[in-house]
Write a structure and sequence with these properties.
The structure is a homodimer.
Chain A (H helix, E strand, L loop, with lengths): L12 H8 L3 H10 L6 E2 L5 E2 L2 H15 L4 H12 L5 H38 L27
Antiparallel strand pairs in A: 1-2
Chain A binds a DNA duplex through helix 2.
DNA sequence: CTAAACCCTAGAGCAAACTCTAGAGTCAAG
DNA sequence: CTTGACTCTAGAGTTTGCTCTAGGGTTTAG
């Protein structure tokens, strides 16, 4: 049978994923999260996508690149498809990100200072006697906070 | 019965946790990870700690504050209790962290530039006509990378 | 006709460091 | 004797964004 299979613009999930530079897993994942609408299906159950979905996927990647989280992107898309312009929402989100970035940078600067201090201490240490109770004197008079390891 | 309960220096997990400023869950968690040695037990199964454990907990928090991960701290402790000085290891770890911090700061700076650019774009946009196909023109000509949201 | 390449679902697993729950037992004070 | 604070274990849940597996079915080229 060749009925639905040859409609123009038809893409299966693998082609869509390749075109967007993501994995098929990711496409299905986004659908589950509500970032992509439930697509048409063949009788076999295969998902069939229109080019609009590719646009949308690209938008999602760009929004991600701009620092939005998937749930934020979902909200932006919801606004858009509710007929509103999402721009105010996006602006607010970006401004929020900016504040957060500044905060993180301040933290990193502080952390870097502390690392420098500890390393400097460590250069003087080898000749000092280590207290028996100490585990490592480099750390024993230490900084304050955890280090933001990246997700 | 008051047999074991009144030995001097005896601490139950709750007292230890309070003294160290962590939760009892955390203490048990550290034990499971091998950061704390299996403690003595009462007949009832209650953990009984010596002051040395409090020292160790404090060391762990300090090492964390210096940016070491729990598995790295475990390694440092292993070295120490294998009779070696962990200082070289710690120095190496801290130097590694420093490199990582520099990398992250560079990324954050780049990301901040991109946010500024997008926000600046957004100030000029409201009067521009939005392409029908566009979802949000602020994002449609966008930056490059994901934003390190903190753990 | 068969093999390769594709697709489906439901659900687990990863990183990291906790945090919390359920359900049960223990202990000290009044 | 009861109340309330404490403890135990084993295991699930949190966060975010995937990534992969198991165990199937479908399509297409040769």
């Amino acid at each position: 049978m060749t009925t639905q299979a040859q409609l123009e613009g038809v893409r299966l999930i693998g082609q869509l994923a390749r075109a967007a530079g993501v994995s098929v897993h990711t496409v299905r994942y986004y659908e589950r999260l509500g970032l992509l609408p439930p697509p048409l299906r063949r009788d076999s159950g295969y998902r069939v996508y229109s080019p609009a979905t590719l646009e949308r996927l690209r938008f999602i990647r760009q929004a991600q690149a701009a620092g939005l989280r998937l749930d934020e992107i979902r909200e932006v898309l919801r606004l858009k498809y509710a007929g509103q312009s999402p721009c105010d929402c996006v602006r607010a989100l970006l401004q929020q990100k900016l504040v957060e970035v500044e905060r993180e940078m301040a933290e990193l600067r502080r952390f870097r200072r502390e690392l420098h201090a500890a390393l400097k201490r460590s250069q003087k240490l080898p000749r000092l006697p280590h207290r028996a109770s100490a585990i490592c004197p480099i750390l024993e008079s230490a900084p304050r906070r955890g280090h933001p390891t990246k997700p």
